[in-house]
Write a structure and sequence with these properties.
The complex is a heterodimer of chains A (38) and B (236). Chain A has 38 residues and is mostly helical. Chain A is built from one helix and no strands. Chain A is rod-shaped and about 50 Å long. In chain B, 75% of the residues lie in helices and 2% in strands.
């Protein structure tokens, strides 16, 4: 595998983790905002 | 929620600018393409230090003031600190494999102290999960959050205290040895990741507050279900 591809893949992991955490928070917020029992 | 969304948008734009600068900055003659990992490795671990510092601040303030929002700050910050430290270590391992010829070395002071720091903060998060009562949870984790922060300066200065594999700081109070273009790219990325951290922390604290409000209206299973008594079982 080329060096550039390894570095680009690492960047994808870093930004993916950041975006993934934001999505996880969004889902938890939606769940918390639902009325109780639903 | 609007403020969090605006902060996330600003952070996303800053991260995009940081990535562009990382890909336009000159490469190190020996490290080649792997030089670019510097622009994510340093900022993510800087955020981890900042996050664990904020956990300590929230913990101390909770112990003094007993206000729930300080506990939310400490907990949210610790979670983000673990996330960014794991990501930072991963980028370091990719770089280490290419430049040092090995991804990990337990005899290295910086690597070993960082690993211990991450394990302790995973323990902090586990302690929070293991305690159901909100006040007990906040008090116990505040004590741990206050003590655990001693690791942050230990990790930071480990490269000066024990000269092993990991290089010393490139930016010191007496100046830097970095190329100006590389320095700008690094500082922009540090700023961009800091903005992302602030946005995510604001979001995390908001979610915790919403969950607490929602939880106040919902009875827990433990409150509604009584455990069977031994005497009742013996009567059957």
């Amino acid at each position: 595998m080329s060096d550039a591809l390894i570095v680009a893949g690492t960047y994808v992991v870093v930004y993916g983790a950041t975006i993934g955490y934001a999505v996880y928070l969004h889902r938890r917020r939606k769940k918390a905002e639902q009325p109780a029992g639903r | 929620m609007k403020r969090v969304q605006i902060m996330l948008l600003i952070a996303a734009l800053a991260l995009a600018a940081g990535a562009l600068l990382a890909y336009s900055a000159p490469l190190d003659r020996l490290q080649g393409e792997f030089t670019r990992l510097l622009y994510v490795h340093v900022p993510t671990l800087w955020i981890a230090f900042l996050a664990f510092g904020l956990t300590a601040l929230g913990s101390v303030m909770y112990l003094i003031r007993k206000k729930e929002r300080w506990d939310r700050l400490a907990a949210g910050s610790a979670e983000l600190g673990v996330l960014f430290s794991v990501v930072g270590v991963f980028t370091g391992m990719v770089w280490g494999q290419a430049v040092w010829g090995q991804a990990w070395d337990w005899s290295d002071a910086r690597l070993a102290t960082t690993a211990v720091m991450i394990f302790v903060y995973i323990g902090y998060l586990a302690l929070r999960q293991a305690t159901a009562d909100p006040e007990k949870r906040a008090r116990r984790s505040a004590i741990l959050g206050t003590i655990a922060v001693v690791q942050v300066p230990l990790v930071y200065f480990s490269v000066n205290l024990w000269r092993t594999l990991h290089q010393t700081q490139s930016i010191r109070p007496d100046g830097t040895t970095m190329d100006p273009e590389m320095l700008v790219a690094l500082l922009v990325n540090v700023g961009a990741f800091s903005l992302a951290f602030i946005a995510l922390l604001m979001g995390r604290m908001l979610v915790t507050r919403l969950e607490l409000v929602a939880g106040a209206d919902t009875e827990l299973a433990g409150d509604t279900v009584s455990p069977p008594r031994l005497s009742e079982i013996e009567d059957v």
